[in-house]
Amino acid sequence: MAYTFMFSQVTRYLPLFFQGLWLSLVISLAGMAAGSLFGVVLALGKNARRKSFRNLSAVYIECFRNTPLLVQMYLLYFGLGQFGFHLSPLVAAILAILLNNAAYTAVIFRTGMDAVDKGQTEAGKALGMKDGQIFRYVVFPQAFKIVVPPLTNQFISIFLFSSVASTISLPELTYQATYIESISMRTFETFLMATGLYLLVTTVISLGSGWWERRLARY
Questions:
Q1: What is the tens place of the pLDDT at every residue in 12-42?
Q2: Do residues 183 and 1 make contact, with C-beta atoms less than 8 angstroms apart?
Q3: Residues whose CB is less than 8 angstroms from the CB of residue 154 and which lie 6 or more positions away in sequence, other chains included
Q4: Which helix (H) or strand (E) holds 82?
Q5: Model confidence at 140: pLDDT above 90
Q6: Measured distance CA(90)–CA(100) in Å, rounded
Q7: Distances in whole angstroms, Cα of residue 167 to Cα of each of 172, 176, 196
Q8: DSSP assignment of 42-58, as one string?
């Protein structure tokens, strides 16, 4: 039996698709930005002189990298609710992505920092620079150039994995696609549209990252 495509039954819901896409971008950007800052802190903790800081950072990174984002999100949204801490779906999603992303970006930033020539750190000390100044003006700028590609990949992963937020009733793109499919009864067309939007955004991110990498390479 031939299948008749009826995209007109789906395109009428484009505003819902774009609302979901916007929310997916919001939680992904918020989780990436805040998680990356936390990741820098964890990366510094892994290289700290005090063993307690190194161990604490290591435990955090291993725990969050080796457990699913969905489980972490459930713990924050459903689990904390049992103790009287009720988070909204938006807050729970951003917090879960933030905490999960921090563990991954910590490894990325640490790799970038370790790739910077140690001789430059010694040169900074010879010039009388403090540790904080060496990190800010010598190590981090060079490490950041190195980690742009893996950070881009991480952001793309976060954007795609943000779809799990639909399971806690956050109306992001996948949630909206599921809702549209339920009222239009056009499964293939609906999720093909959602797939196209995910692909469009990830392609733009990849192209933008490539342009930024070339720009950074000039300096």
A1: 999 999 999 999 999 999 999 999 999 999 9
A2: no
A3: 32, 101, 104, 105, 108
A4: none
A5: no
A6: 15
A7: 10, 12, 21
A8: HHHHHT-SSHHHHHHHH
Structure tokens belonging to residue 141:
């700028």
* Other beta carbons less than 10 A from residue 168's beta carbon: 20
Alpha-carbon distance of 63 to 126, in angstroms, equals 39
Tokens of 56: 């604490």
The answer to whether residues 42 and 60 touch, using CB atoms and an 8 Å cutoff, is yes
CB-CB neighbours of 44 under 10 Å: 17
Per the rule left: phi > 0, alpha: psi between -120 and 50, beta: everything else, 85 is: beta
Q: What is the mean pLDDT of residues 141-148?
A: 86
CB–CB of 205/149 below 8 Å? no
Determine the average pLDDT of the residues in 127-135.
78
Q: How far apart are CA 61 and CA 99, in angstroms?
A: 10
The pLDDT confidence band at residue 1, using thresholds 50, 70 and 90, is low
- pTM value is 0.91
Distances in Å between the Cα of 74 and the Cα atoms of 24, 32, 82 are 18, 19, 12
Rounded to an integer, what distance in angstroms lies between the CA atom of residue 96 and that of residue 77?
9
Q: What does the pLDDT look like over 160-211, one tens digit per residue?
A: 999 999 999 999 999 999 999 999 888 899 999 999 999 999 999 999 988 8
Give which of 102, 109, 119 is closest to 141, Cα–Cα: 109
Contacts of 201 (CB under 8 A, 6+ apart): 21, 25, 159
Q: Which amino acid is at 17?
A: F
